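Changelog note: in this version the structure field was regenerated for every chain. One regenerated record is shown below for reference.
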Amino acid sequence: MRFLEEFRDPVLAEAIVARIAGLVTRPWVLMEVCGGQTHAIIRYGIDQLLPDSVELIHGPGCPVCVTPVACIDEALELARRQDVIFATFADMLRVPGSDTDLLACKAMGGDVRTVYSPLDAVQLARENPGREVVFFAVGFETTAPVNALSVVQARASRVDNFSLLVSQVRVPPAIEAIAGSPGNRVQAFLAAGHVCAVMGYWEYEAVAARLGVPVVVTGFEPLDVLLGIEAALGQLERGEARVENQYARCVDRNGNREAQNLMKQVFRETGQSWRGLGRLEASGLKLQGRYASYDAREKFALSGVPSRESGECLAGDVLTGRIRPYECPRFGRECTPDSPLGATMVSGEGACAAYYRYRRNAGAHRA
């Protein structure tokens, strides 16, 4: 409990806010990359405590939210097959595809099962040798090592009826795409601490130097976020642009080398489509070498599955910070957690879900 209670201390929070107020001399715009940080900001009202000159923009930091509609439609195509058991984490069940979602597919007879780990899906394949088991491998670098481990174990135990539908994304190319996009207003980034716990932060150093933007590795408790904001603003005020590690209790520069080596053994970098950002080169992962036979897209020849984006949902604009959730005309009306129109209202880390849960709307939000 130590690192929870200490990093939620309201007296310390007031002191950090006071330091920030004394530090800032001009307007600045920061983006928190991770949806967990977004929820901390909205839940604790961190953005409302900051000086008016400091603006926080919510980034695309939720793998459920950035998974493109085309990938959801591929999942639905597989889940409808009689010979397939489709295994997924529960947070993907209600993400809309072009016409429906996995939960509705399950209700219509598709064998869709929720699991807690891809290793559970490997066990399902062992127990059902007459059927194909596909696991929906969605996530940032945090989930890639255990997804890699699942195919290593499947291959070692000769479980050939197991495969992955991969939608793994890498954070550094997304930061670079946002910072280099036309009309970008973001001047510094709060990087996701859990991603950096796996990958380290050395890769961000070149991004910060090349684009001239500070990147501060930040945790998820309210004081973590405030300290990350303070560090980013300090760099901006001093005219610096480097990587700074606020989350040193969990992150070091090199990250988890064993996990990284496992990822390199199983995956290679590839282009990947992101909801809101489009296709970004080297921002995804693809099974390679002796593990390529566990790629569900290849095994089931999934190329060309038709898909279309919803004309009602503005999730792409929310994910890139072009609008706040309450600026969508359907927010809290046609689109709620009980009847979501898009992934940002479905996901527990989605910005729309955070604004809805903590009753944040235009009237409650400080402009």
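Spot check on this record: The mean pLDDT is 94. The chain has 18 helices and eleven strands.
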